[in-house]
Amino acid sequence: MDKFIKDRFVPFHGKLVLAAALVYAITAWNSSGYHSADEHFQIIAFAQAKLGELPVEHLPWEFEAGIRSSLQPWVAVAVFKLAAVLGITDPFNRTLLLRLLTAVLALFAIRVFVQATIKDVPPELHRAYLLLSYFLWFLPFLYVRFGSEGWSAIFLMFGLGQVSGERRNTLGLLWAGAAFGIAVLCRPPVGLIVLSALAWMVIARRAEWRNTTLLVVGSAAMAALGFLLDSAFHGRPHFSTLEYLSMGFGGDPDVRFDTLPWYYYPPWIVKYAIPPIGIALLVCFIIVLWKRPKDLFVWCILPFIAVHSFIPHKELRFLYPLAPLAPITLILGLAELRLLVGHIKTGGIAKFLVVSLVLSNIMGTAVVMTSAAGVGRTVLAQALFHDRPAEGDTIAYVIDPERAWRISLPDFYLPEGMRDTAFLPSADAWVTKDIRYLVAHDKDLGTLFSNTDRSVVHLASTEAPWVAELMHWYTWGEGQAPWSLYRIGPTSR
After folding, report:
1. Please, what is the average pLDDT of the chain?
2. 69 and 115 together in one domain
3. Under 8 Å CB-to-CB from 253, ≥6 apart: which residues?
4. Residues 254 and 223 in one domain
5. How far apart are the C-alpha atoms of 147 and 34, rounded to whole Å?
6. Cys bridge to 180: 46, 57, 159, 378, which one at CB 3.0-4.6 A?
7. How far is residue 281's CA from residue 319's CA, in Å, rounded to a whole number?
């Protein structure tokens, strides 16, 4: 086995890392903006406040509550200061540096993880496992996100790779503990996965207490660092992880979230991982749970999903820290499935399933590599910057003002001195306002301009037509139509 890995696995892996670096760089370049509001308002906005670019009173309630770690905001502060030294001041390149940094960390963590876990994979599935580890369609997107879910997933993967490897020296275990600690700082609920990994080492692996102690020491060191960073950020002794957990258990009477039934996550996984891939993930996990219940990854996945299933407030991104375990789950499930049905002729069915999975993955990868994150608002912001608006110009969003946050550009992405407003598409009073730019759905233009002959110039759309069509199918028709940015001119006569 060692000779096989040296002669075939290592060269192929090296080439694959280079290909992945290119794919991740392209994804980082195009995947501008933020996937969830937290990725911007609880990290970038926090960094802006520390740099004096944003008043503290403009920060979300999480800042006052002190429940978000300052680790990533501090990283953003450091990167933004370095960017300033290099003469990089526009918001798009500043955040691109954060995404590229995240991609580099991810590539390193993936390499560590697959080298540690390849021993569990049958040799004939090595290449498939490597390809999935780098190119399963949602992973490049997640691995360039400078958000709490992305960073917790990356550092969790590094820690699990160190723990599951055959060589666990003192330094490696300390690094693994430190990685676990960073993952928890970024996303405190990931602590459940860390506890599951520690329990696996003690109960299933019967590891020496020394090894477990080293992991705890590494994690404790990062917790101490988190306390120091939080205290410096808030100007008083403070530890955001404790505040987060306290609010998580006790709740906040002033904050209300949507609630969903306990069974929502499996259907979401099927739907949003793209059904052929989502179904394969669930089937493979059930098989691995049945045939390999003592595996580390089963111990990490099952408690995390079970606990989150019974938490009323649910979001799919809460499961993102488990994304790095999707490739190993698929491969181990496939290996066990082959043993179960090896005596049954499944040639035609197998080919159909493989083609479905490959085509689904290609389409998903094409979208994430070429599209902005979230609703694509930063595509509009870039077009706005290139159009060079004058100071004092107004940009209007054609949407219910109470829901304008869904598409409006944060101050970070607005040209200096620009103002914004929002109104419903049925309103006609907008024509009396000094509006220079308009963000609207194409279908609303007829209503908006029925009583005026002002000229309209299309500048950009949040999605290319082919992406919009794929997203319509991906969301099962529930997604919003693309938004467009228009420049409003004088009368067209």
Report:
1. 90
2. yes
3. none
4. yes
5. 8
6. 159
7. 13
